[in-house]
Amino acid sequence: MSASPLRLLIVFLGIALCLTAAPTVYLVGDSTMSDKPRLDYPERGWGQLFRELVVPPAVVDNHAQNGRSTKSFINEKRWDAVVAKLQPDDWVIIQFGHNDEKIDKPAVGTDPHGAYRDNLLRFVKDTRAHGAHPVLATSVARRKWNDAAELIPTHGDYPDVVRALAADEKVPLLELENLTTELERSLGVEGSKKLHLWFTPGELASVTKELRDDTHYSDYGARRVAALAAAEIIRLKLPFASFLRPDAASIVSSLLAPRPLLLAPGSSPPAPDATVAADGSGDYTSLQEAISKAPLRTGASDPRWVIQVKPGTYRERIYVQRERGRILVRGEDHATTIIAFDLHAGLIGLDGNPIGTFATPTVQIDGDGMVWENLTLANTAGPVGQALALRADGDRLVFRRCRFLGWQDTMLLNRGRHYFEDCYIEGHVDFIFGGATAYFARCEIHALRDGYLTAASTPEGTPHGYVFADCRVTADEGVKTYLGRPWRNYARTVFLRTELSAAVRAEGWHNWGKPAAELTTFYADYASTGPGANATARAPWAKPLSEADAATLTAPAVLAGADAWNPLLP
Hints:
Blueprint: H1 5-20, E1 24-29, H2 46-50, E2 59-62, H3 70-75, H4 78-83, E3 91-95, H5 112-129, E4 133-137, H6 158-169, E5 173-174, H7 176-191, E6 196-199, E7 211-217, H8 219-235, H9 248-256, E8 274-276, H10 287-292, E9 305-309, E10 312-315, E11 318-320, E12 327-331, E13 337-341, E14 363-365, E15 371-373, E16 376-379, E17 390-392, E18 397-400, E19 403-405, E20 411-413, E21 417-421, E22 424-434, E23 437-441, E24 444-456, E25 466-469, E26 472-475, E27 481-484, E28 492-496, E29 499-500, E30 522-526, H11 547-552, H12 555-559
Parallel strand pairs: 1-2, 1-3, 3-4, 4-5, 8-9, 9-12, 10-13, 11-14, 12-15, 13-16, 14-17, 15-18, 16-19, 17-20, 18-21, 19-22, 20-22, 21-23, 22-24, 23-25, 24-26, 24-27, 25-28, 26-29, 28-30
Antiparallel strand pairs: 6-7
């Protein structure tokens, strides 16, 4: 039976609406905007952090690159690659200037009133020719103070050219030079260092000489500038603002507010109450001893006892009792500050029986409200069966820039709510498992052998299990892995906007030989990318996730609980 013209028109309009309902925002520019690796070096671009504020199915496609000017970006065909992908109602945010200013380097330098303006105009016209929307942005300020503690402008005529072009062509303008200038000034000569890359040898494994970089951003600096960009989009009432997260206003507010416990390495964290150093130069040589001497603080508003752990490998088991939860354990660098032990489930205990999985953790936390930063927690038993690096039984636990190393059952998230940010977790079988609610933001999950990444045992009726947002799934060469399987039948696991390597099996999920679990689990991945993202081949019992559903899965919403806990705030 042939379709009527009206029905065809309705179908056509429906397809058109679907195509325009999910724009891509392209970022083109230099290093201050680009994506950076998050584990081994502190440099960040604000575009990477801006990605967190965008609601799927809208996505951020960041083409900004270190060292590029308008000239080299065009000559290297990078702009052609963006143009080839543009669709109607996409957005392109354009921010160049830092490298165009290098007139002494012919490969990148451009005259501000000549080639620089011409190249920006080309970006604008090419974008509009494809039905997409250009947005111009002035360059971010450098941290350059004179002896009178005055911030010195460094960009010459380039920002004025951007402003004039935006006015002439009626293009929205993100006034990032003025905004970041005010940000630098508000923090002062010393305080503004934390926006940038100021490090001394030993602060990070990758830092072998003193760094004094006043141009590029630390994690903290990139977060602040991303918040400024989002606030500008909201202030300008750009249509794209509707694709910012529903809680964008509160996120922007929290990012702009002081965050003493969320600072990047190298910034100014709270002073330690106790220092652990393996060489005897601190207050303690054992982390367990320092924890055991911490005050008994359990209230959610109690100040945290801060323990600084100097670089070294500490071979000890750590237990945090429930009465001592309000502690911040802070290493200097996860690559050089390591807590390790090697118990595994098959070891024979004092009763003559194997000790079992739950008795093996290198670190066991029963206390609530604990924070761990810049450390490695490892179980070094190797591929000998279950061997926990972490057992989490407390509530409101936060881990930032930490590594978790093991094989089978690397981390047992047994109960409570937990937040992992910029962490690295490796293993090969069920290496993230348990009944807790956990949110993983921008983490790398690495499979060492064929197996399963997760084995949730979410209790029936619990609204959330594990949520992985803006993460990466990687693996050793030749490895194949499932995203998860249900340890218990009401397991809930969701991957959002995650880059999935070819190691992820097409079907994604495994039922653990329990067909009944297919009816009760909630497994989904949404807006995934990479060769392992294959929505059409997923297990048929995996759940669809709507745009509206995905937008609600923010860290504050997933982890709120009855006490409205927000792990993004101090």
